[in-house]
Amino acid sequence: MSVIRFGISELPDGDHAAFLDSLVEQGHRALELPFTKEFPWKEKQCAQFGALAAERDIRLSVHAPYFAGLTIPEEDRGKQSLAALEHTMKLGRWLGAPVIVAHFGSSYEEDPATLMDRIRSRLDALAPKVESLGVGLGLETAGNVRQFGSLGDIAQLASEYAFVRPVVDWAHIHAMTGGGLTSPEAFQSVLGFVRDGFPGWMISPLQVQFSDNEFGQAGEIRHVAYGDGTLRVGPLVEAVTEAGMSMVLISESRDMTSHQLIWKEVQAHLDGSVDRRGRHLSEAPVAFPSPVGVIKDGERFRAVGTDRPISFSNIDKAFFPDAGYTKGDLIQYYASVAPVLLPHLAGRPISMSRYPDGIDGPSFYEKRAPGHQPDWMRTVPVPSDSQGGIIDFLLADSPEALMWFANMGCIEVHPFHSTVGHLETPSYAIFDFDPAEGSVWDQVVAGARLLEVALERLGLRGYPKLSGARGLHVYVPLDPVHSFERVRRFVGEVGAYLAAANPDDITMEWDKPKRTGKVFIDHNRNASGQTVASAYSVRPLPGAPISVPLTWEEVGTVRNGDVTIANLWDRLQRYGDLFAPVVAGGQTLDAAETALGMRS
């Protein structure tokens, strides 16, 4: 599904509501605020304007000041530049803008390795101040040889910093290629690099800027009125349609006539475009990243363009009837979320929780690999007391594996707490806040907040996520050096302290009748063979909710059911993978156990 939101770059004056209404009347659905020379608005004005834009479904972005680059050699100027970027991102948060746009800066005739090291040091300093804002730092492609920043540079940094996003300035690329963007094929080659270099969720939509320009051997010289140069927007629209991508296209022209001419040409090519890629897995009106095409093959549907051969059955079967989502939508969700989800499943045996007829049908658990899985599906032998001996569990190590699980009706993804090679030593501790009958959500929040303080005092980092059903989980990443018994005992000890500190809301009572009206901390979740719905797992409930990671600031404001397979993508654009530190590990329980008096 190709979607283009067109907008302009302009700082409104006068009646803001009337200005936004005029954009809507023209069909515009995006606006870039050029804070390129100064910060004309404060937080309150940004919040007010952001609310007006949200009411009209206008997606905002902000262009940071031109002086706020990342390559400046002087330390004092570099700090001032970082402060400006930080302030722009904070204003972006008040505006509700998912991304701010910034230039790398000049190359200063230094070698790329030196510049990248400097940029990394600046981003290291910026990260703790902005990574939980929900605003991406959109790094713009360079427009002449004196500037730094190719798509490859941006891709490298985006793989290292969760808040970095690509911004493609087509005028810049046109100039740097000596006027090479004259056909749909030329644009397609750039879009192909973008799709290969960035995960689908990060570029859905892809933020781009467009204007006609004059250029020379060194690159861009200046913007010109649309039509006076050689860059045209029509071939871009054709390329985007062919690729099935979503895009926010901002006209950065310097005059209203050029804005209007570009928009008119965009509309003309959208109206005349034909999607020639055939049937998609998902027919739902959801802008899933990385859409998967399928071809009818007998009674099944064969995927095209995947790295491994895979086919699907009954893709139009209703799986979430209340929301109108089908089995094909579920498969497409897992294909799209794969770049974020797969690191959390790497090396972890998967227990299958199957709903062959969707959430309204019967369900059952299946641990043993069924035997009819594709040849490329990996398995791992795992001792099982309940099954009697060694059984083969399946692994999820590719987008196709996730799609296969979904095709089997596995709405949920249930990984082990440990990985192959360390099956008896978990790589995280889980605090499961399970609201008992008669309790309310505020009690869950109170328990999680108390745990946040306790973990901080114990020198440990914890990461919250909604269960997607009723409760909330807090993961404490660990190096795989502790036994399940030791991790379970630690969680039980901390849980007992929390219950003692707040007996009205929290309980460790195993007897269900004694839990009524309270939130139960189930420390027995930390046991060999136990599983919990993974981060980004769908839950088998109406609306297709997600077990989604939160920032600590969001605990209490975002609730189960708020994030679904339809709206997860904007969160990922804003925050990236909030659970990435869980994969990294890097903690042990030794000091915390000593502080609790659990070790001699």
Key structural traits:
globular; eight-stranded parallel barrel; alpha/beta; DNA primase, PRIM domain; TIM Barrel; five-stranded mixed sheet; 600 residues; 3 domains; single chain; 25 strands
Multimerization status: single chain
User: What is the name of the CATH architecture of the largest domain?
Assistant: Alpha-Beta Barrel
Radius of gyration: 26 Å
Biggest sheet record: 8 strands, parallel, barrel
Beta-strand content bin: 15-25%
* Helix proportion: 25-40%
- Supply the helix-strand structural class: alpha/beta
CATH class value of the largest domain: Alpha Beta
CATH superfamily of the largest domain: Divalent-metal-dependent TIM barrel enzymes
Residue windows where pLDDT falls under 50 for at least 5 positions: none
- What is the total number of structural domains? 3
Mean pLDDT: 94
Number of strands: 25
CATH topology of the largest domain: TIM Barrel
Count of separate DSSP helical elements:
16
* N→C terminal distance: 61 Å
- The best one-word shape is globular
Task: Report strand order across the widest sheet.
Answer: 1-2-3-4-5-6-7-10
Account of the protein in words:
- With 600 residues, the protein is an alpha/beta fold.
- It contains 16 helices and 25 strands.
- The radius of gyration is 26 Å and the shape is globular.
What is the strand and helix layout of this fold?
Elements (H helix, E strand, L loop, with lengths): L2 E7 L6 H11 L3 E5 L8 H13 L3 E5 L11 H21 L3 E5 L8 H19 L5 E5 L10 H10 L3 E6 H7 L7 H14 L8 E5 L2 E4 L2 E5 L10 H10 L2 E6 L4 H17 L20 E5 L2 E5 L6 E2 L5 E3 L4 E2 H19 L4 E5 L9 E3 L12 E6 L4 E6 L4 H9 L2 E6 L12 E8 L5 H17 L5 E4 L5 E6 L6 H18 L4 E2 L11 E3 L46 H8 L4 H5 L5 H6 L5
Parallel strand pairs: 1-2, 1-10, 2-3, 3-4, 4-5, 5-6, 6-7, 7-10, 24-25
Antiparallel strand pairs: 8-9, 11-12, 12-13, 14-15, 16-17, 16-20, 18-19, 21-23, 21-25, 22-23
Helix pairs in contact: 2-3, 3-4, 7-8, 8-9, 10-11
